[in-house]
Amino acid sequence: MVEINKIAILGAGCWRTHAATGITTFKRACEVADQTGIKEAALTHSSVTYAAELKNICDVDEVVVSDPVFDSDGFTVVDIEEDCGVSLDEFIEAHLEGDPEDVMPKIREYVKEIAEEVPKPPEGAIHFLTPEEMEDKLNIVTTTDDSEAVEDADMIISWLPKGGVQPKIFEKIIDDIPEGCIVANTCTIPARQFYEMFVKDFGRDDLQVTSYHPATVPEHKGQVFIAEGYADEEVVEAVYELGKEARGVAFKVPGYLLGPVCDMASAVTAIVYAGLLTFRDACTEILGAPVDFVQNMAVESLKMMAKFMEEEGLDKLEGALDPAALTNTADSMNFGPLADTGLLPKALEVLEEYSKKGE
Fold first, then answer.
1. Domain end call among 211, 228, 257
2. Is residue 136 very low, low, confident or very high in pLDDT (cuts 50, 70, 90)?
3. Using alpha carbons only, what angle is made at residue 292 by residues 289 and 296, rounded to the nearest 5 degrees?
4. Average pLDDT for residues 127-134, to the nearest whole number?
């Protein structure tokens, strides 16, 4: 039986980028506040929302959030009532009743204004609770010492910067991570790269690597993606059950698909996936073509489109291939599921519009 009694979350996040999108809300954070009776949970974001859920919904014995920013002069706390003119009760009520835009514009406007002066992590960050309030109100532990955070941890959730920065951070604490510990990436590094970092860079093949990927802004929506393929099945199942209870919705996903199904690339992945499903059914069910033949055509198309993008450059596609070149050919595939879903006709409309731009 897999027991998860202590969870260390590395990285506290910063709300400035979320404010800049102009669309994110604190809907999930307010749901956590309502579910737990802890009003201050509504003011959490990023990994702190994770911590509030894991500690107060799942009743994990100890949840630690570690980030050097907690001791930084640039750590900036927004008081939504004093700074934005929104009371906490009003804030929660608006979100729970489905009217977050009654309060969010004021908060986004204020955060975007101060973001010009607040240093970026790790020198600074914008939050809505102090570390002391996080500890007192959310029942979690905050620290600036990653080694202290991971000591005796059953699970580590990485909310650290992207790319080449993570190895430099983990290198400092790699010997402090307990044998057999579950280590989970979030949206800041692909699961495959995360796995390879531990195994190839650090020689830690004793760790259970998976994901605890929000696939959204954590305070905005409750969901999590759990990577399969790099950890034992019982570990994946345990993290899945934990995530489902904490976040409300959980998905098991092949590790190599993270993040194409989770991050910004999901907009492309969703379109391609829908195309594959409808193409498969149209060819096999209507034409009666063998599925292996249909698969070969799909594979060739996907490979060549990837090669096309890499060789020509994403910003130069229309110059290399007029989008209209597809409209007189692909429309012949407008039958069966492709026609029923309207997927292909809509795609052709998009191609026609891009073609007109070049005229």
1. 257
2. very high
3. 100
4. 98
Rounded to two decimals, the pTM is 0.84
Q: What is the pLDDT of residues 160-216, one digit of tens each?
A: 877 678 899 999 999 999 999 999 999 878 889 999 999 999 999 999 999 999 988
Q: Which residues lie closer than 8 Å to 69 by C-beta, 6 or more apart?
A: 12, 14, 75, 121, 122, 123, 124, 125, 144
Which tokens hold the place of 18? 């979320």
Q: Could you tell me whether strands 155-158 and 6-10 are parallel, antiparallel, or unpaired per DSSP bridges?
A: parallel
Closest CA to 7 of 41, 44, 57: 57
Nearest alpha-carbon partner for 193 in 150, 276, 256, 142: 256
Q: Is residue 293 part of a domain?
A: yes
Answer yes or no: is 1 within a domain. Answer: no
CATH of the domain at 40: 3.40.50.720
Beta strands in 162-309 (DSSP E): 182-185, 208-211, 224-228, 250-254
Order of strands, sheet of 182-185, starting from the edge strand that comes earlier in the sequence = 141-143, 62-66, 6-10, 155-158, 182-185, 208-211
pLDDT at 291 over 70: yes
